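Go through this pair.

…
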Amino acid sequence: MRLSRAEYKEIARGTEQLRPTRQCMKMLKDRFPHHSQSTLLSIFSLEYQKRTKRTISRHHVPDVIEQYYQRYLSETKVRPTAPVLLEFANEVDLSPALMARIILDRFLKDSNGGMPSKAILNSMLKEPSLIPDQILANNIYQCTINDCCYGPLVDCIKHAVGQEHEMLLRDKLMERNLSFLDENQLRTMGYDKTPDIILEVPVAVEGHIIHWIESKASFGDDHSHQTYLNEQFWSYWNRPVSRLSTWRLMLQKVATRGLDCWED
């Protein structure tokens, strides 16, 4: 579906005071019942990530980290079975998964007497049962499963959805007997940055000659579209006009010169 900028801004304003929890998503759905859950989640996720980028630095000040950690220790002594980290993250307006990372990193510094490796930290966030402290493991788990914007669970879901829609795109092209090379084939040929699909024989669609296709199973607002342009699409510029396929929803009038955006 497509949204006007006025509709998008109205929903974005409705997300300003919300936290990345299931309860907040229910509140958003109740306020905007005519929009699907996936639409609202996509918009909320984008807006919350923008908010986090503006404020994350204040949560990484050493004194603040120590304050968070000591408060976690004191509260879990009084309430060992309570989701202390989840409650605390919502209180200070920080993603539960990011709060979990901060506290786990601080815990491992105490346990190991030094800076933990990124590999160990990530493995414990993905599999909390690896954490030697059971109370902390439970808190990390609660933060992970209740965060709809950040964390290993969200990353896994995004990856799976992206893979699913790339497969769907290939299936649609094969149904139409179009000859193409996909991203994996292009990488084996030595390309470092590649679109998802390059058509071996360009096709005409709605008056445009299409050479390559990029599939994005996410919301396409102005900010994300500009980011994709800078980080990906302009590097494909020597492969003339293209199509950007967004499988969820996008703002009206976000197409850029040489890029034809459409939604399935």
In short: The two ends are 8 Å apart (CA to CA). Strands lie at 2-3, 180-182, 197-205, 208-216, 242-246, 250-251, 259-263. The longest helix spans residues 152-175. The CA atoms of residues 147 and 186 lie 35 Å apart.
